[in-house]
Amino acid sequence: MNVHLLNDLIWRMAEELGVRHGYTLIDNDEGMLTLRKQEGVRVTYLFLLPLYYGDTPEAQQELIRSQLQESVDWMKTFGRRKSALVHRKIHLYIRTSPGLQTPLEELAKLSVSSVTEQYRAEAWVADPGLHRLFASDTRVTGSEALERILAEPIPAEYELGALNAAIERRHYAIVRAHEERLRRPREEIAGRRKGSPVTFALTGINVAVWLLMTAYGGSDNPETLVRFGAKYNPYIDRGEYWRWITPIFLHIGGLHLWFNLTALLSLGGRLERGIGSLRFALFYLLAGIAGNIASYTFSPSISAGASGAIFGLMGVLLVLSIMDPDLWGESGGMAIWGGLGMNVVLGFIVPGIDNYAHFGGLAAGAAAGWVYVTLQRAKTAAR
């Protein structure tokens, strides 16, 4: 494959990724293109370039490893302002010569990453002659489309002027698609730009309600709790079903409030930025309601607190880390497991903790996370 057909192939891949799969073209270095796409907390870069050969297989591997290391260093530099994100850069090397040094399957296993796996660069290889893509197990949006392009035959003849004109059209199409995405009002993009508005709004509401309760008899006073809407089974039995919602915003004492808000601010920001503010608010409320229904079903005690909703956030994050570890990070999942285990132990040791609300919220959050990932996969498959 000569340089002209190589450029045509690279731009066909870039057009597919940019127009149909939401990538942004961020660099064009003499035909070596870099595209970027953010999904939730993951940022994926695709670097399209020709396959390099060295004097020996070892030299070739060392050259590619050095390029991967440069990419990890580059991501560390440009990713500092968004430390909550997970960065992946795929070097998609396109084989242009029939000569082989390192087997392509082995090249596709090369990778370099930071200690925490927050920054990772991998080598993939596209072989137009074999019509194959040699890749790792990392999930990358648009990889199936790249395989379809590689399955197409290499033109036996071509006209250089027509190829160059096609490249110009593809470049324009990528830029136009990006501009259209910027103009499109999307709630998830707006949520990321504004940070975590729902998380901070919930924090403010909980503090305000606690201050009101403190002023009107004390937040640990049973009469005040019932008056403000705590879960109280006799009143729910007579039809006050709104008491499955209001306890989410009540807390029994300042320590209870502090623990829950610390957890909310710790978990909420990342999850809200990843799935969008509207979904986050919906999952939070559903988990809180489910927790209160579980508490009503199995416990006659007065109860209040955002703990069921907080456990619901843990459930969502656990499922996301299990079903999509590349996007949400296995290390994040382990941290959630640790926090969840500690809270479960405390629930059985410390008296007065409503474990039914905790487990009800956890189950609802896990179910919501499963539905979310399943729908996202179906949407991706339908593209």
From TrEMBL:
InterPro entries associated with the record: Peptidase_S54_rhomboid_dom, Rhomboid-like_sf, Rhomboid_protease_S54
UniProt KW keywords = Hydrolase, Membrane, Transmembrane, Transmembrane helix
User: What topology does it adopt in the membrane?
Assistant: Multi-pass membrane protein
Keyword Hydrolase in annotation:
yes
Localization per record:
Membrane
Its primary localisation, in coarse terms, equals: membrane
> Which ranges does the record mark as transmembrane?
198-218, 248-268, 280-298, 304-322, 334-350, 356-375
* A single GO molecular function term of this UniProt record: serine-type endopeptidase activity
Q: Does the keyword Hydrolase apply?
A: yes
Gene Ontology terms: cellular component: membrane
Start and end residues of each Peptidase S54 rhomboid domain: 239-373
Can you tell me which family this protein belongs to? Belongs to the peptidase S54 family.
Q: What is this protein called?
A: Rhomboid family protein
